[in-house]
Automatic annotation (TrEMBL):
<feature type="DNA-binding region" description="H-T-H motif">
    <location>
        <begin position="37"/>
        <end position="56"/>
    </location>
</feature>
<dbReference type="InterPro" id="IPR009057">
    <property type="entry name" value="Homeodomain-like_sf"/>
</dbReference>
<keyword id="KW-0805">Transcription regulation</keyword>
<dbReference type="InterPro" id="IPR001647">
    <property type="entry name" value="HTH_TetR"/>
</dbReference>
<keyword id="KW-0804">Transcription</keyword>
<keyword id="KW-0238">DNA-binding</keyword>
<feature type="domain" description="HTH tetR-type">
    <location>
        <begin position="14"/>
        <end position="74"/>
    </location>
</feature>
<dbReference type="InterPro" id="IPR050109">
    <property type="entry name" value="HTH-type_TetR-like_transc_reg"/>
</dbReference>
<protein>
    <submittedName>
        <fullName>TetR/AcrR family transcriptional regulator</fullName>
    </submittedName>
</protein>
<dbReference type="Pfam" id="PF00440">
    <property type="entry name" value="TetR_N"/>
</dbReference>
Amino acid sequence: MTTPPPGLRERKKKATREALREAALRLAMERGPDQVRVEDIAEAAGVSPRTYNNYFASREQAIVSAVTADREARIAAAVAARPAGARLADAVTEAVVEQYTNTGEREHAALLLITTRTALRDAFLDATAGIEHPLAAVIAECLDDAGTHTARVLAAGVAAAVRIALEGWLQPAGNEGAAGSFGGEGLVVPSGSLPDELRAALAPLAPAFDAAERRTRP
């Protein structure tokens, strides 16, 4: 049996992942997330449950992935494409705000679904960790500083800040003072402006970005 070239294998894996997350979201929207099994998602995507488990650890992860798919790559690409002379802290902030707030009708409907279940909200928040590695690689290139931990620390800080902003935004209705406390399965009503939450959470990182840029200037 001939082994497909790496490019073909990667394309097949990407197509399978896309089919699974699209099936997961469609079924969750049609039936409600509690009525969707991993077996249902796998069947709808034309793969086995075993194959499903190679891509996602839970149904919640697959559902959320349909909303967050490739967001971390787009954030990194936007930072890499910043105009010459643009402040790195500003480029990171604008990239994050753009990718988290410029959503279409389908993504908006999916986000409303995510707010109805604690497990989905937790998976949505956990997805912020995916920002770290691609962003660290781009920051290292921007700083011409691949040999130290600076880029990784800055990227980890961004991921943590985004999670904190989302926790503050996704507050349970009637419990505005307990950011990140998602008890029960009631509807969470997003509070305030998400762009403002993101900018406020990222602002403390700006001095660290500025200091790193100063160290790498000729």
